[in-house]
């Protein structure tokens, strides 16, 4: 039984968690806990790029339009004001953004953007940022990383916070400051672009701890996930591909986006996904086509080398063939409610990255704003933590051992006989079928009833294991999403219910 003290505990080692750690005072001892390997998660899969606010007025407008004006305006302004400093820090840490022959940064354009303002590293921007940040974290002597460790709960006790985890054994760690940076909720759905370990853990843990959660109904479905009936994680075809000229066609080979929006393929993601969904219904199909065959082959191979090679490995030469795509769960705009400094309603607990709801994105995220949000608010959290004194937290080792013993004791009288894999698959089917791009209250209500019964069954069959907590986290997050969707009575952004009156549709 380990009881260890740190100045800061960071849960998650994606871009937000890593950037937070690297900007904290080197005199502070930091523990980073990650479910898989250092740097794993959705961050390394980010293809398109990171917004550079070189044109603040139009970027501000684009962000509001994409978010259906549900955004927190102060959060957008904060994002913009601190974007240059945060991006420069990335560059100082070794991130290599693409440049032209004269050494000037290259910018691309994505859906919802009125101008080309997105920095990128080919079509693997997230991977490049993770490479640079993990290299620096490994060099820092004040940062300890525990891999293959699942955090299962947080206990808040006056001036300190305890983190319960399962790795090779049950352990408790504590710190004055805890940063939740666990990413999104993708594996709540059957089809997602997120890795297999992204199960909404941070949001579920925060909810159990009494931390405010909001806007969970705003789930973004990326318009162009590569269609597959077999893959557990769908391959994303970056929005930047459409930014460079790709078009969408239905199974008849017809372009259709001009019917739905003046920006056509470059409309905000919610509009494109809903439009595709309507087209699928009209044509009785499971997918549409992404077409780049009119673009130069060398340009495609140089600009999107990873996408080109991935498709080629599946027998698709995108310079000659259409790619089957369909809307796929990609991102969550809601999550753990924070202020502009990343603080939650519990003292000493912060959140950043996709698991946090800063208010930047509103009801639908503008493409490539997420990486910028992740580093800007991570940096603000670091400043907050740096202002906290080094005084010893007032708790003894004996107290913590007692807490851990009591926590472990809650599971003593249970013997879980449930098929956890079966429950997980059932939840994914429900969420995919009834809580997707277009919903209705009848199906949502029926789904919530099923979820509540599953949750009760799990609570009556406790088990102290990683698998159990992953499933209970999926159930918790599903319940939060459905409850939010039922409660919201207007269509706005990524939230769309078919049974609402037309005059309730915000956009």
TrEMBL record:
Pathway(s) this gene product operates in, as recorded in its UniProt entry: Cofactor biosynthesis; NAD(+) biosynthesis; iminoaspartate from L-aspartate (oxidase route): step 1/1
GO MF annotation terms: L-aspartate oxidase activity; steroid dehydrogenase activity, acting on the CH-CH group of donors
Cofactors named for this entry: FAD
Entry's Gene Ontology BP terms: 'de novo' NAD+ biosynthetic process from L-aspartate
Domain FAD-dependent oxidoreductase 2 FAD-binding: 7-371
EC number: 1.4.3.16
Pfam family, one: Succ_DH_flav_C
Domain Fumarate reductase/succinate dehydrogenase flavoprotein-like C-terminal, residue spans: 425-500
Active site: 269 (proton acceptor)
Taxonomy, superkingdom: Bacteria
Catalytic reaction equation(s): L-aspartate + O2 = iminosuccinate + H2O2
Keyword annotations: FAD, Flavoprotein, Oxidoreductase, Pyridine nucleotide biosynthesis
Compartment(s) where it occurs, according to its Swiss-Prot or TrEMBL record: Cytoplasm
Entries under InterPro entries matching the protein: FAD-dep_OxRdtase_2_FAD-bd, FAD/NAD-bd_sf, Fum_R/Succ_DH_flav-like_C_sf, Fum_Rdtase/Succ_DH_flav-like_C, NadB, Succ_DH/fumarate_Rdtase_cat_sf
GO CC entries: cytoplasm
NCBIfam families (UniProt xref): nadB, PRK06175.1
Protein function: Catalyzes the oxidation of L-aspartate to iminoaspartate.
Family: Belongs to the FAD-dependent oxidoreductase 2 family. NadB subfamily.
Name of the molecule in the record: L-aspartate oxidase
Natural source organism: Clostridium cylindrosporum DSM 605
Taxonomy of the source species: Bacteria, Bacillati, Bacillota, Clostridia, Eubacteriales
Gene: nadB
């Amino acid at each position: 039984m380990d009881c260890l003290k740190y100045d800061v505990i960071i849960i998650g080692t994606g871009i937000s968690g890593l950037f937070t750690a690297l900007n904290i005072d080197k005199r502070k001892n930091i523990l980073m806990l990650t479910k898989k390997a250092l740097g794993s998660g959705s961050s390394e899969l980010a293809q398109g790029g990171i917004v550079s606010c070189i044109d603040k007025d139009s970027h501000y407008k684009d962000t509001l339009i994409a978010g259906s004006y549900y955004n927190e305006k102060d959060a957008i302004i904060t994002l913009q004001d601190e974007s240059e400093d945060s991006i420069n820090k990335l560059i100082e840490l070794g991130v290599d953004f693409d440049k032209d022959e004269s050494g000037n940064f290259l910018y691309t354009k994505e859906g919802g953007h009125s101008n080309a303002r997105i920095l990128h590293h080919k079509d693997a921007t997230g991977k490049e940022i993770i490479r640079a940040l993990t290299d620096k974290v490994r060099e820092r002597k004040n940062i300890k990383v525990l891999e293959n460790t699942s955090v299962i709960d947080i206990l808040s006790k006056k001036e300190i916070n305890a983190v319960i985890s399962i790795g090779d054994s049950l352990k408790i760690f504590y710190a004055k400051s805890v940063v939740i940076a666990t990413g999104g909720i993708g594996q709540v759905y059957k089809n997602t672009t997120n890795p297999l370990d992204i199960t909404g853990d941070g949001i579920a843990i925060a909810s159990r701890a009494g931390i405010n959660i909001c806007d969970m109904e705003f789930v973004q479905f990326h318009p162009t996930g590569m269609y597959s009936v077999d893959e557990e994680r769908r391959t994303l075809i970056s929005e930047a591909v459409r930014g460079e000229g790709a078009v969408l066609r239905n199974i008849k080979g017809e372009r259709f986006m001009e019917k739905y929006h003046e920006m056509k393929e470059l409309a905000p993601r919610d509009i494109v996904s809903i439009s595709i969904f309507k087209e699928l219904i009209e044509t009785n199909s499971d997918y549409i086509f992404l077409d780049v065959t009119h673009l130069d082959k060398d340009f495609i191979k140089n600009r999107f080398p990873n996408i080109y090679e991935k498709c080629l490995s599946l027998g698709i030469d995108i310079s000659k063939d259409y790619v089957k795509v369909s809307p796929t769960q990609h991102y969550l705009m809601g999550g753990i409610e924070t202020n502009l400094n990343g603080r939650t309603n519990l003292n000493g607990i912060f959140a950043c990255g996709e698991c946090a709801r800063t208010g930047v994105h509103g009801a639908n995220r503008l493409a490539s704003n997420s990486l910028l949000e992740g580093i800007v608010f991570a940096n603000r959290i670091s400043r907050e933590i740096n202002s906290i004194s080094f005084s010893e937290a007032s708790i003894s080792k004996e107290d913590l051992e007692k807490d851990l013993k009591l926590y472990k004791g809650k599971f003593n009288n249970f013997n879980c006989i449930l098929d956890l894999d079966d429950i997980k698959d059932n939840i994914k089917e429900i969420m995919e079928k009834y809580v997707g791009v277009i919903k209705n209250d009848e199906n949502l209500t029926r789904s919530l009833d099923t979820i509540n019964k599953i949750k009760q069954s799990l609570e009556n069959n406790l088990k102290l294991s990683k698998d159990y907590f992953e499933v209970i986290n999926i159930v918790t997050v599903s319940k939060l999403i459905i409850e939010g969707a039922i409660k919201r009575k207007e269509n706005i952004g990524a939230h769309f219910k078919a049974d609402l009156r037309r005059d309730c549709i915000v956009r």
